[in-house]
Structure prediction request, 1524 residues.
Amino acid sequence: MGGMDVEGGIARKLWNKFRSESVFVNYTPFFVCLAAGNLNADAFLHYLSQDVHLLNAFANAYELAEECADDEEDKKAIRKLRKHVKDKLKSHDSRVREWGFELPEESSSTNATAKYTDFLLATASGRIEGEKVPGKIATPFEKTKVAAYTLGAIAPCMRLFAFINKEIQALLDPNDSSHIYKKWIDHYCSQNFEAYAFRIEELLDTLSISLTGEELDVIEKLYHQSMRLEVDFFSSQLIIQEAVVPLSRMLDPAAGGQLTIFCDFDLTCTALDSSAILAELAIITMQKAEPDGPETQLAQMSLADLRSTWDALSAQYTEEFEQCVESITPTETVKSFSYEGLCEALQQFADFEKKANSRVVQSGVLKGLNQEDIKRAGQSLILQDGCKWFFQKIMKVENPTAAVHILSYCWCGDLIRSAFSSGDLKALNVHSNELACEESITTGEITKKLESPMEKLQAFNNILNSRGNDCQHLTVYIGGSVGDLLCLLEADIVKEKNMQLKIHFLLLFFCYCIGSCSFGLANVVEKTKLNEEVSALLSIKASLIDPLNSLQDWKLPDSLALKYSAHCNWTGVWCNSDGTVEKLDLSRMNLSGRVSDDIQQLKSLTALNLCCNELSSTLPKSVSNLTSLNSIDVSQNFFTGSFPVGFGRASALTSLNASSNNFSGVLPEDLGNATSLDTLDLRGSFFQGSVPKSFKNLRKLKFLGLSGNNLTGQIPGELGQLSSLETIILGYNVFEGGIPVEFGNLSSLKYLDMAVGSLSGEIPAELGRLKLLETVFLYKNNFKGKIPPSIGNLTSLQLLDLSDNDLSGEIPAEIAELKNLQLLNLMRNQLSGSVPAGLGGLAQLEVLELWNNSLSGPLPIDLGKNSPLQWLDISSNSFSGEIPATLCNGGNLTKLILFNNSLSGPVPVSLSTCLSLVRVRMQNNKLSGTIPVGLGKLGKLQRLELANNSLTGEIPNDIASSTSLSFIDLSSNHLRSSLPSTILSIPSLQTFIASNNNLIGEIPDQFQDCPSLSVLDLSTNHFTGSIPKSIASCVKLVTLNLRNNQLTGDIPKSIAMMPTLAVLDLSNNSLTGGIPDNFGTSPALEMLNVSYNKLEGPVPANGVLRTINTDDLAGNAGLCGGVLRPCDRYSPTSSRQRSLRAKHIVAEWLIGISSVLAAGILLIGGRLLYKKWYSSGGCFEERFEAGSGEWPWRLMAFQRLGFTAADILACIKESNVVGMGATGVVYKAELPQSNAVVAVKKLWRSGTDIETGNSGDFVGEVNLLGKLRHRNIVRLLGFLHNDNSMMIVYEFMQNGSLGEALHGKQAGRLLLDWVSRYNIALGVAQGLAYLHHDCHPPVIHRDIKSNNILLDANLEARIADFGLARMMVRKNETVSMVAGSYGYIAPEYGYTLKVDEKTDIYSFGVVLLELLTGKRPLDPEFGESVDIVEWIRRKVGDNKALEEVLDPNLGNCKHIQEEMLLVVRIALLCTAKLPRDRPSMRDVITMLGEAKPRRKSISNNDGNASSKEKPVPVFSTSPVNGLV
Prediction:
């Protein structure tokens, strides 16, 4: 094609890559009608008017590109191209007349035209999506790049025009001048237009030479986008007439209309003739009959006779079919198409088919078939790849209405209907013959409805005629045999002379869209066809999405001789000596999409590898038909659905890896028949059910991986028969029972991993027989009892992890016999006694973890002496004695974790030379002596924790020279020395804590180099002197605690400007002077405590100091103003100040007097303005009268706030009300000045009448509540009050309350899956447990209900509304007003009026029932005076299935219901009638943990899918990743 034949160049490469999309332009209604010569003239003129808009856009784009081009030759070339377009615009009118048309009226751009022109001009202006181009394109390089981008956007349009018109021209008779659009077509096929298109491409190649690979990618993106916009442009062209065209894209639903799809069945939807299926079924039915049983009424033929009869019928049919086809095939080339001739030929074909059917009826071979067997055969029938998907896609179209009709010669319509019964295809209309039946048994007769092409055509026309005329119609026919020709032609007949053109289009379309169909027409047109394997590979490629273009060489060569062998050189394809495909490796190509059913055509395939892609469909069942497979790897994808059954037939299969997918359903039982398997890896999916006992047959199996699924039941003891098994990984499931004792027979086993498997019982002593066992992972199960001493027989054992179980007793001394042991992890059990002394002699031991047990006694004195010990953690036990000095003899010790024990004696001096140490944690012991010198010289030591011991002496100076320490905690010892002068300048130091010691001297003024310090705590020591000013240079300091020392002098003003300082405690010192004015504007300060010093003067009334707690200022008699009492000008402080001033400013008395007068005027004026503003309430709509207090409104802040009381008050108006409850009205306050949104609850009752207390009591209570911090508790931000009213400020939750989500307007949008509701239940439980168990004194909520549980942006639960909460200093305190809401109130409250933790637990149980049932606590369905608790109890009492009370919106899946029923039990325990029978909230959390859903959670938000980024696989394909 002209210039396109020249090799090289980006333009040619891009055209070759995207030219396949031209088919979507070829088969638009516009081009089909235009090519046929029957396009309505008005439609053509409308197109021409839109073309003018495009030409103008091209001209403008060329103009911009010319400005950007740097080279003069390039400018000249672009100028010529622009001139060509301008000339075309000038001659447009005359050319239209020349083509024989009147000039079109001017019309505005359609949406498709506007999108195309906007895209062209945006590209030419440098506005490319995703490409960073400066707003002002200045440099020559930037300009050249934009010019190249512009040409990349224009080039495909011109090439597409030339290509499509040449395609059409090749189909037209060059001597036929009657085609009204021939001149238009000839124009775009002319050499001039071809040369014009080539010049654009040539210039694009020139401009692209200097571009980078990334910039060439941008051109490719623009080229492709332009191609798609061109397709949209022609697809949107106006079509006035009726037109039947290939369905190349879905109809626009907005356009209305009706779509009718017709399809043949045999050899089109299926790969087989249905008669062969019925023949096979007849033979199988006869085989199943009892040999000596009586003959049924209809069964009259023996099996042998049946076989021979079928063979004879088949042979005769084949022979006569060939004769029939030969007789109707013309012997000479047909020059013109004759419709009548075709009908005559097909009539002969019909006569042949009718005779063949009659022979079948007469033979009686179809007698005795059961209708149910026929339907089952249909359901298991494998349809052509894409067939169901295509029809499902069509049937889902709501407007236009879609109808699908199957027209078939098949003998049995039930077979067709059952084949399509799955999915959404039950509404298909089937038109075929039927087998006559008596009582569901076939008689052998055929009810004949469709036997010939003529009858099929008649049925086709009847359906078309039955359609109404009130809407537009689109008809598509998909056929696969000679008998479909008449319907194909009828679907698109316009004129007889154009018939050749029509047939070409239709056949080309069907080959394109239904690539797997084998057209019967091929027998008429030509006898050759593509190799089946090549077809299968191309079908596989077509079904995949290949973003990296890895399969770009998968295409047929031009040479016919190479068509049958070229595929052997395709990427990922290997052929054997016969030229058939034996290996297909498409791994790690970033492929997505689906795997085509045609893969089953690769019958010689021995190895299939699809690993590590993004395939997310089901794995087709047809894969299991590849019975020659030796290995298959589909791991690390997103395959869904059941795993295909049938691999048991692959007798040579040795390796099957399907790990890290999303498979569900049960494990295929038939895998036990694949007896050659040595590797079976099904880890990391959602398989359910039990492990098949049939796996016992896999006697050659060496690797079995089933971990990370939802497997249940007991592990079959039969697996103990797998004598070749070397690795078994079964963890991360939900098994019942324990480890089968038969596992002691796995004599070849080297690796046993059953961690996190919900296993229980005792560890079998029989495991001690496994002499080759190297790794045992049994952690995080529920094993009880003692560790079997027989474990000492595992002489090959290297890794032993029994942590996180409930094991008790002592550590067996026999473990010391495991001479190869590298890791021993027994942490988090109930072990007691001492550590066997023999552990010190394990020469290979690297990791020893014993923490969180009840072990006691000394450690082995030689521990680490003869081993490469790396990690020792014995924390949280009761060990005593001294720390062995030999721990680091091997020079490998990195982590030494000994805290929370009773170890005594000195810190071993040998540790100061242990260069490998990273962490030393020895806090909370009874260590004595001094800190060894030399720890600071350990270049890897990061953490040193020696707190809460009895260490004495000095802090070694060498610690100050460390270059690696980041955390030092020496607190609560008896150290007595000054701080080393540079210790706080350690470059990596983040935390230094030395509180509660006897440190003396001044704090070193050496803070200039502390780049990482964030926490400094020197409290409760004897430091003297002033606070170093250089401390302000610690730009990352967050916490500074210097309380309880003897510091003097002023507070440095520079501290206030530290950018990250949030907590500053200077209390209990002897600091003097005033609080610096700039403290209120400190950028990050949240907590300031300067109490009990000698400070004086006014407290600044800005920033954090406006809302500071007065307790943090107490003990400073000289402080006044701000939140304290007003400063009294006659106070002793003021007198002293006046006295000092008189001595120093006598010479400037006029200035002084003026200053005093000015200050007084400002003070009085400001005070009056302040009172006036707040007494009137500002813009507070509801007027509040000020009481007798000095300040109308006070804001108590519980953290740093970015707003004031006035900001809050401005938002308290009716339009901002978002809720109303028993304790007050809730307002939504949007605070633009701080870019925050908060909720404000204005309490109903006044501050002087809350329960039996006064306002001071309530303020104190709220103050305590404001200090509560938990992720499941709504955080109180502040408390705003005056004499008459109180308001609480807290976080605003955008998803509202749980009650609203379950029962309100949000119902049906949120919380549509059980995992989301479970997470809310767990969050509420954790929040209540915090209130009940972690707060001292405990907090009783008193009003737990779904409306008091708020949902944050991530749908995480937050408990709200402490309006009536009380601090329960004593158990069972009686309160004077109703606690709780009706439906949630515990029954005992009605007669005791007592509240405690059990009251909250009852209410929590009601909330659980709401989550489970979706119903309110009180519902008319329950009956009069019956609440949800009683309703559930009655169901239990009546022995009714509790599944019926579960919310049906969460699905009826069995495993989900089982999980929910576990939580129903918890809810019933929480709502027990007697308080003593209710569990604590800690027990509830434990029970909820046991009921946790065992599957991946879906999105907790509004259903939008998360990112498509592929996660890192949880389960490695390798059983051992190295030492833990």
